[in-house]
Amino acid sequence: MNIKSQFPIFNNNKGLIYLDSASTTQKPEAVIDSIVQQYSNNNSNVHRGLYKIAYKTDTKWVEAHSIVAKYINAKSYKEVFFTKNSTEGLNWIANTVSLSPDDVVVISEMEHHSNVLPWMKVSKEKGVILEKIKVSEEGTLDLSHLKELVSKYGNRMKVVSVLHQSNVLGTVNNVEEIVKVAKTVGALTVIDAAQSIAHMEIDVQKIGCDVLVFSSHKIYGPSGIGVVYCKEELLNSFEPWLRGGEMVKSVEEDNILYNDLPWKFEAGTPAIEAGIGLGIALKWFEKSVEELGGWSEFKRKEKALTTLLVDGLKEIEGIKLVGGEIEREGIVSFNIDGIHPHDISSLLDENGICVRAGYHCVQPLHQKLGLNGSTRVSLGIYNTKEDIEETIKQLKKVVNIFRK
Amino acid sequence: MNETYTKELIENYKNPKRFGKMETPDLTGRAVNDLCGDELTLYVKNEEGKVTDIMFDGRGCAICIGSMSLIIEELMDRNIYDLLKIQEDTILDKIGMKKDSPRVRCATLSIEAIKNLK
Ligand SMILES: Cc1ncc(COP(=O)(O)O)c(C=O)c1O
Known about the structure:
The complex is a heterodimer of chains A (404) and B (118). Chain A is of the alpha/beta class and 404 residues long. Chain A has 2 domains: 4-27 and 294-403, Aspartate Aminotransferase, domain 1 (Alpha-Beta Complex); 31-286, 3-Layer(aba) Sandwich (Aspartate Aminotransferase, domain 2). In chain A, 41% of the residues lie in helices and 16% in strands. Chain A has helices at residues 8-12, 29-42, 52-71, 86-96, 117-126, 143-153, 175-183, 204-207, 232-237, 272-291, 295-314, 341-349, 363-368, 385-403, and strands spanning 17-18, 80-83, 104-108, 129-133, 157-163, 188-192, 211-215, 226-230, 248-252, 255-258, 319-321, 331-336, 353-354, 356-358, 374-378. In chain A, the strands form 4 sheets. A 7-stranded mixed beta sheet of chain A has the order 2-8-7-6-5-3-4, sandwiched between helices. In chain A, helix 3 packs across helix 10 (272-291) and helix 11 (295-314) packs parallel to helix 14 (385-403). The model of chain A has no long low-confidence stretch (mean pLDDT 96). Chain B contains 5 helices and 3 strands. Chain B starts with 6 loop residues before the first helix and ends with a helix. Chain B has a 3-stranded antiparallel beta sheet. Chain B is an alpha+beta fold and 118 residues long. The mean pLDDT of chain B is 93. Chain B is globular. Chain B has one domain (7-115): Alpha-Beta Complex (Sufe protein. Chain: A), CATH 3.90.1010.10. The chains are: A alpha/beta (404), B alpha+beta (118). The interface between A and B is medium-sized, with 18 and 19 residues. The structure holds pyridoxal-5'-phosphate. Residues 85-87, 112, 114, 163, 167, 192, 194-195, 215, 361 of chain A line the site of pyridoxal-5'-phosphate. Pyridoxal-5'-phosphate binds next to helix 4 of chain A.
């Protein structure tokens, strides 16, 4: 099965080598078509109209939630609500969980800004202590440090919010263990699955977390839609953060009757076509993984490409990977002595190769590792051995320009 | 873009002219590119409104450092008030970069540093 041919972007940009899927993935035709179809055939608002096309849209909207719930093994669609993106999901929980002065929130030193800034705000406003699980020089999360924090703070530790897969290092954190440790003091557990969602099976019940967020655009779906998974009993106990239409049944003087779960948390008109498109994307992705031979085969192939990439990079004089000998899954960041990441990215772009340069929204980790940014190569389902080989070849040419 | 990465630019990046910190400058001009954190600081000795010595330091990509190095000699002996009127085109023309290139800011950081002299 040819995956690349299902993505119009590669037909419309001959020779394009896209290696920035950690930033956003390309979209398969099935997803693009679903957006056109929604607008062309059924366009109407959700939860409002009593006419046929509105009923169709509503059905598709609920179905998209069900597809997501099934995909991450939530107990029901009631545990899944849609946001704009992962960032909004993390802001939602930071602004929803009840915190008092001297409570403790734990994140880590490898977090994306979107899992740092919302907690910094809460910490400042409410006098909450913000702790960060240490990252070793190698680039792994120091779980013994989390255990120390648990001993130190006990049940003052109210939240542990960490990412599943690092968008810089490419490593996967042992979130099941993290949740287990956090649960010994009853902390709320939040998992940022923005990167992991497109690289591995996600089972929220197996992880055992209270909250998990991801973005549609990083798993071949449309941008403008994100997902929050949250346990039903918690959702029942939380007050909605955003308020307006769609999230209430009735509004009288002093008496507001919220809508049922999960709609209570979806205030205002959402990105309807994108939410429906996310359902299509997950279905498409699931089917593609199956056709590739299932998850273990998918992961084996991705690992092989990652190894090819790492080995190729190591041949380059003056290269330094971000992180040491760690298990990278489809994401590799690096620096080359004397060559700025932006120059690398611009010169690769000359040959139709797209890679990311800069901090990748993770400035604290770069600073901790003493780096002024890095160049990142990240894989998607459409990448091939040829893509990697060509990239290494062009990268060597870039180095030559500077070394001559 | 390849036209921009000339041998001359790369040479100026690897061995920038007048690079280093000046101890007691009369004027300094600093510019930072928020997008990437690249930064330049220009140091000037000024006698009766004329540039009598000039140096710069900072960190950045080949276009940023190379651009500053490529025009710094031209700034010697110039009238300070004339310098402050320098246009972005000066550097873009010199390195052959189009105005709609995604890297324009890297090149014009040098101009910003000059304009920020005080
Ligand atoms: C680990 C991680 N968390 C959060 C985000 C934020 O995702 P979004 O911009 O879709 O909200 C990203 C995106 O790069 C990410 O890699």
